[in-house]
Design a protein that fits this description.
CATH class: Mainly Beta
Order of helices and strands: HEEHEEEHE
Distance between the termini: 32 Å
Helix content: 10-25%
Number of strands: 6
Mean pLDDT: 86
Radius of gyration: 14 Å
Oligomer: single chain
Number of helices: 3
């Protein structure tokens, strides 16, 4: 008998915070809690790529289309994404 957790993980991709991604990792935005991020283009379905990460919970550089944004660590933690595996 499968548990509800195992059935859910098989049917949908893993959703993680943008802050947990590595450098040069691509993802698709699933949800954001910040209106400012939505206004900048971080809307569900948008492809993003982590370009650089600063040490000690510093800013994270993220590319959205041809634009690059520096996000605070707490903003990146609230931005939920589905990683794209090559």
């Amino acid at each position: 008998m499968e548990t509800q957790h195992s059935m859910r993980s098989q049917s949908s991709p893993a959703v993680v915070s943008l802050a947990s991604l590595g450098i040069d990792q691509d993802a698709v935005v699933c949800a954001t809690a910040h209106r400012r991020l939505s206004e900048l283009g971080f809307t569900p379905g948008t492809h993003v790529r982590v370009i650089a990460k600063a040490w000690f919970r510093g800013p994270i550089a993220v590319r959205v289309g041809s634009d690059t944004f520096a996000l605070r660590c707490h903003e990146a933690q609230d931005l939920m994404v589905a990683p794209i595996t090559p």
